[in-house]
Structure formats: C-alpha cells, structure tokens
Design brief:
By secondary structure, this protein is an all-alpha fold. The chain has one helix spanning 2-64. The protein is 97% helix and 0% strand. 0% of the residues are buried. The model has no long low-confidence stretch (mean pLDDT 96).
Length: 65
C-alpha cells in the first residue's frame, strides 16, 4: 500500500513540475508580448509627436501668410 501511495505522490509531483514548466513558458511569452506592446506604444507616441510638430509648423506658416 505504501508503495502505491508513493507512486501516486510521484505522479502528482511530476504533474506539478510539468505545470510549473508550462507556466514558466507562458509567463516568458507574456513578458515578451508585453515588451513588444510597450515598444509599439512608444513608437506610436513618437509618431504622434512628430505629426503634432509638423501640424503646428504648418499652422504657424499659415498664420504668417
């Protein structure tokens, strides 16, 4: 009986190890996605700032005409 319980415990530990590995892989993938989204956000902010600057320059030129 004790040997059977030991086998069951061993199986549960193996399942936990597999779950931890799966969760670690998922966590790494989510972190990579997050870094990508942050970079994309920064790129959009930069483009928006450039567009705003260009529009302001055009408005200033129109005012001088």
């Amino acid at each position: 009986m004790a040997e059977n319980q030991l086998k069951v415990l061993e199986q549960k530990i193996d399942e936990l190890i597999k779950l931890c590995n799966d969760l670690n892989r998922e966590n790494q993938a989510l972190k990579a996605d997050s870094a990508g989204w942050h970079q994309e956000r920064q790129n959009l902010i930069d483009k928006n700032e450039l567009a705003r600057t260009k529009v302001e320059a055009m408005i200033d030129r129109l005012h001088t005409i």
